[in-house]
Amino acid sequence: MSPWDPQLQRSAAAVIAGEQAAAFAYGVAGAHLASGQRAQALAGLDEHRLAATGWAAALRQAGGQSPAAASQYQLPSDVTNAQHATQLLQQVEAALVPLYADLSAASSGDVRSQAISQAMGCATRAVRWGGATQAFPN
């Protein structure tokens, strides 16, 4: 893999950090969800962990440095029940969409295709958790 330019590296690092934060949020939210939604949250947790790991490996292979995961993250609000948990998951999924849009704008080829696919997946999960639909950024 050829080296990534600085903008592509910054965009990838932002996605990795966002995915790490999303994984943390899914772990918190899952503790407040009933079994059916908890299973969905666990699947989301796995997806975000895999995405963070995959993008980190790609960034390192392309000559960049992957950001380390934080030991904890600041949540936008307290999560004390299922409603708060689903709101948190809506927010973290929606927050990833523009990060992936930036990554797709900074990239080409397979990286761009993967970034677009991930953005669509995040937008879809946000809606599944009860969020409003959003236009894909230009």
Please give the domain count: 1
Radius of gyration, CA atoms, in whole angstroms: 15 Å
Count the E strands.
0
Globular, elongated, flat, extended or rod-shaped: what is the shape? globular
CATH architecture: Up-down Bundle
What's a quick, concise take on this entry?
By secondary structure, the chain is mainly alpha-helical. The protein has helices at residues 6-30, 35-61, 82-106, 109-128. The model has no long low-confidence stretch (mean pLDDT 94).
Tell me about this structure.
The protein has 138 residues and is mostly helical. It has one domain: Ferritin, core subunit, four-helix bundle (Ferritin). 70% of the residues lie in helices and 0% in strands. Helix 1 packs antiparallel against helix 2. The longest helix is centred in the middle third of the chain and has 27 residues. It is globular, with a radius of gyration of 15 Å. The model has no long low-confidence stretch (mean pLDDT 94).
